[in-house]
Structure formats: structure tokens, C-alpha cells
Amino acid sequence: MKSTLKTIVLGLLALYCWSCSKPSIPEPDPVILISPEKNNSCLPLFSTTSQGVISFEWLESLNTDSYEIHIRNSITGEEQSRSIDLTSAIITIDRGAPYSWWVISESLASPVRTKSEVWSFYLEALQQESYLPFSAQLVSPLNGETISLSSNQYSLQWNGSDLDGDIDYYRVYIGSSETQLNLVQDNLSATSYSASLSSEQTYYWKIITVDEAGNQSESSVFNFITF
User: Three-state SS across the chain?
Assistant: First the structure.
């Protein structure tokens, strides 16, 4: 009798604990970008001399209620964003400039905001003779990453691309804040730079890409911490 009662009590306790446990909340998945295509030129749906209307499209992601699209002009650094429930957006931007764009997935059930890949494209100007280079994509260190130094050195790495294929060189900027970046290397043909750094510091960095026609574009600014 005692054994049976004990079994019942344990069963009820297990049922109570199961009913009180919080179910896991799935995080929204990143979207897969479709168009404008990565590292390609883009033709507008409609256009004027100075602006074009672009259709941005991506695939629906799981556990997502809405999306937030971001478009960044790689020359001016100007960024615009828009919240939308659909998997496409029609947005007007300036012609004759390289752009980066990405989409953030959002869920009403989760505080997590999931970012997609960052793609670049070029919106042609009228009678375009040469293309501006795409803004460099910073590879290492990633934004917010904590890195380990070797003899106070770390190799910064990035990717560069240009529709004309005429990238001439890169400029490397490093500083202690986003608004105080110093030019540490000019006329660099490689896509990496061995930086001399101090441990237990927060650094900010960016890359400016320059092509043979003198056109240039600016990357995003990333930060990282050393130890």
C-alpha cells in the first residue's frame, strides 16, 4: 500500500513539474536573400536621372512574424531601414552607387533578432563609364568578437570586389572609437593587414577600397576586444 501511494505521489510530482516547465521559444531563422543578386549590377523597375526603384526579395524564414530590411549606401554611409510583413520590398535609392543590404528576422514570441547574410550590389547610373568598388566585407575579426593576440599582433582580413575588376588598393583604419579612426596603412594591395595592438583594449576598424579610376567605397565599422 505504501509503495503504491509513493508511486502515485511521485507520478503527480513529475506531472506537476512537467506542466510548470516553460516551453522553449524557437528563435527566428535567418532569411535567404534572392535579389538584387550578390556582387552584381542591378536594373531598377522605374528610374529617373538620379534615382531608381528597386525590388528587394528574400525567402520566408521559419519562426518569423516580420522582417526588417536594411540598405546602406557604401559611398555616403547613409542607411535606411523598413519593417515589413512580406518577403519583398519596393524601395527608392540613388543611382550610381554600390550598396549593401540585409534582412533581420523578428518574432513576437522571441526577443532574438536574426540577421541574414550581407549582400552587395551596384545600381547603375545613366551612361555609366566605370563602376565604384563594392564596400569591403570585413571577415576577421567579426563585429563584437574577442580575439587573442600573438606577440601583440593580429591579422585583420576582409574581402573586396568590383564589377570592373580594377581595385587598386585598400586603406586600413583603426581607432579607439567609431568616430576616431586613424589611417594605419595606405596603398595596400593585399586583403589582410597585420596590426600591432595592445591587450585588454576595445578597437574599431574599417576598410576603404580604391579602384584605378580613383573611385572609392567605405566598409562598415566593426569593433573587437583583445586579451
Answer: CHHHHHHHHHHHHHHHHHHHCCCCCCCCCCCCEEECCCCEEECCCEECCCEEEEEEEECCCCCCCEEEEEEEECCCCCEEEEEECCCEEEEEEECCEEEEEEEEEEECCEEEEEECCCEEEEECCCCCCCCCCCCCEEEECCCCEEECCECCEEEEEEECCCCCCCEEEEEEEEEEECCEEEEEEEEECCCEEEEECCCCCEEEEEEEEEECCCCEEECCCEEEEEC
Q: Render pLDDT for 117-135 as a digit per residue (tens, 0 to 9).
A: 999 999 988 755 677 899 9
Contacts for 106 with CB less than 8 Å, ≥ 6 apart: 28, 64, 65, 66, 67, 68, 113
Question: What are the domain boundaries of the chain?
Answer: 33-123, 137-226
Topology match between the domains 33-123 and 137-226: yes
Going by C-alpha positions, the residue among 46, 148, 44 that lies closest to residue 97 is: 44
Confidence at 17, pLDDT banded by 50, 70, 90 = low
Report whether 215 contacts 142 (CB < 8 A): no
As its CATH architecture, domain 137-226 has Sandwich (2.60)
Please give the mean pLDDT across all residues of the chain.
90
- 171, 137 contact by CB (below 8 A): no
Residue 92, class by beta-carbon neighbours within 10 Å (0-12 exposed, 13-18 middle, 19+ buried)? middle
The domain made up of 33-123 has a fold known as: Immunoglobulin-like (2.60.40)
